Amino acid sequence: MSRAKVLIVEDEGIEALDLEHRLISLGYASPGVASTGEEAVKMAQELCPDLVLMDIMLPGKIDGVTAAEKIQERFDIPIIYLTAYADEATLQRAKITEPYGYIVKPFKERELHITIDMALYKHKMERKLKESEKWLSTTLRSIGDAVIATDKAGMITFMNPVAEGLTGWQLEDALNRKLSSVLNIINRDTRCPVENPVEKVILLGTIVGLANHTKLIGKDGAEIPIDDSAAPIKDDKGNLIGVILVFRDITEREKADEELHRAYDELEERVRERTAELNRRVEQLARLSSELTLAEQRERRRLAEMLHDHLQQLLVAAKINIEALSSQIGAEQKQAADAVRDLIADSIKASRFLTAELSPPVLYQQGLTAALEWLAKWMQEKYEFTVQLQVIEVGFKQEDINITLYQAVRELLFNAVKHAQVSSARVRMFKDEEGRLRIIVDDSGVGFDPKKTCNETEQGTGFGLCAIRERMEFMGGRFEMESARGRGSTFTMIAPLGGIEKVKRKRIGRRVTDLKDIITAQIAGGQKTKITVMLVDDHAVMRQGISTMLGLYSDIELVGEATDGEEAIGIARKLRPDVILMDIGMPKVNGIEATRVIHSELPQTRIIGLSMFDADEQAAAMIEAGATAYCLKSDDFNTIVAAIRGDASGSFCQDSFRFLKRF
């Protein structure tokens, strides 16, 4: 370890030499001795001693006090004064130089050693403190944020250049001022003064931040948006000794925030516009999907009507004419005619089946409930697939809704037949607690993954479930599905009831009893010589064929014809026939409505429903309306004649009036 160098400044040679020997014996180095103040300053510059022992009373222009001032100011070397005596004024001057010690002559060696060691240690610590303060000051002055330090009373002790620039105050002007007189801060929106953060830190002893929307009003009146935080400065014992406040100009950040908010608002508006456009497109697609479904149903219905109104009527007319011809030819020709008649009958049956599969008339004539009942029967007959029905009597005023719901149920049942690997399913239709119509189709089959139905077509089908959902949503309803592998599937359609009307059906059993009573009474009362018959059908070829056949029976007289239900009501009122042969599917007023009106006015006139469709639902509807029988146009004509006559043997009730035995 190097020895500390001590410069001796003493004008008495003997004392200087003695002092030098003492220093060396104490372990210090003595690089030289100066006898005047001027020489001391020069040697301090050249030798760079660690300490100077300075005699106060020196000869020359400057004394020891003045020389000490120059050395401390220029070289930061600690001074220890040596003095034997001095006047009061000189001593006061010496105090101002803040020496590191006084040694009064004469002195002991131990006193000299202690004084020098203490001076060297104190100077070393002060130098470290100054270096630390300088480093801290440089750091605070170089930092990009504004920094203000205060003492524990809130008086300013430090400001860096950034703080000077923002507040408009210079450090020398702000020193020892209250922070509130320099840092004038207000709320941007209310314009009210903001609570002084330093005072809050002094009160709470914790870190405090500024509220949002704070503005600093500079000395020149300029307003600058800032944010800040103030933290306590504590000593080693945790005592508060001051507060440091750090704040920054956030003008650019606020501009960036405004730009960000503006961009966000623009983006949000674009998203709203795009979302609205997407919603419009989705609605358009849903509408197109629904319209395509309805267009498909309309086309199915058109084809079914073409089959019914043209091909089937021609086939039935041909069959009737063949039957008429059979009664006028020989046995050999009759056998050939019967073969042709059977071929025509098979064609009628195939055509009727195709018509029902394309578009069941019961859906349009009697509504959704009757159509579902027909569908259950049809699924059993065609696929041997049992449908358990639990349905209420409802129908929608809008035909499109009936079609949509019917088609959806039909599609779900077809899916069960093709994919569920079961032989039965259940269909329930009821009103829920919220007054909405619910149709639930469920099975106990193999199930599937509902997540794949729209994104991935499972087994190459897709099941049409997404199309059902779109159609339900388009009509203001909802479609839900639950399924899992090996646990079956449940599909729920929920429809608003705004378009529903209650369908009322009379009890069939009571009506059948009434019909039997009417027929029995007519037989018991005897018949007229001829039974007057009125024929109602919108197909001329059918009217012509039936008219020809009726002409072969002497006890039956055709007294009038009508081409639709409205015309039939008017003619029936005039003619009051015994029997009316009433077609069901006709323009203007259909056969069911015409039957209801005529029966209410002419209860003694028996009305026999005629149709191409072998449908219990249509037969039931005709009986409810007031008909006494329901026959197929493709039936053997003798069956129709038996129905006209009432057949006293009772065979009419067992054969022609076929549907009665089902109720």
The total of beta strands comes to: 24
Tell me the count of domains. Answer: 4
Shape: rod-shaped
Distance between the termini: 126 Å
Label the structural class.
alpha/beta
CATH topology of the largest domain: Rossmann fold
Poorly predicted runs: 456-463, 499-513, 648-663
Structure, described:
The chain is of the alpha/beta class and 663 residues long. It folds into 4 domains: 6-139, 3-Layer(aba) Sandwich (Rossmann fold); 143-249, 2-Layer Sandwich (Beta-Lactamase); 368-502, Heat Shock Protein 90 (2-Layer Sandwich); 508-662, Rossmann fold (3-Layer(aba) Sandwich), CATH 3.40.50.2300. It is built from 23 helices and 24 strands. Strands 6, 7, 8, 9, 10, 11 and 12 form a 7-stranded antiparallel β-sheet that branches. A 5-stranded parallel β-sheet has the order 2-1-3-4-5, with helices on both faces. Strands 13-15-16-18-17 form a 5-stranded mixed β-sheet. Helix 10 packs parallel to helix 18 and helix 13 (368-383) runs parallel beside helix 14 (399-420). The radius of gyration is 58 Å and the shape is rod-shaped. Residues 456-463, 499-513 and 648-663 have low confidence and may be disordered.
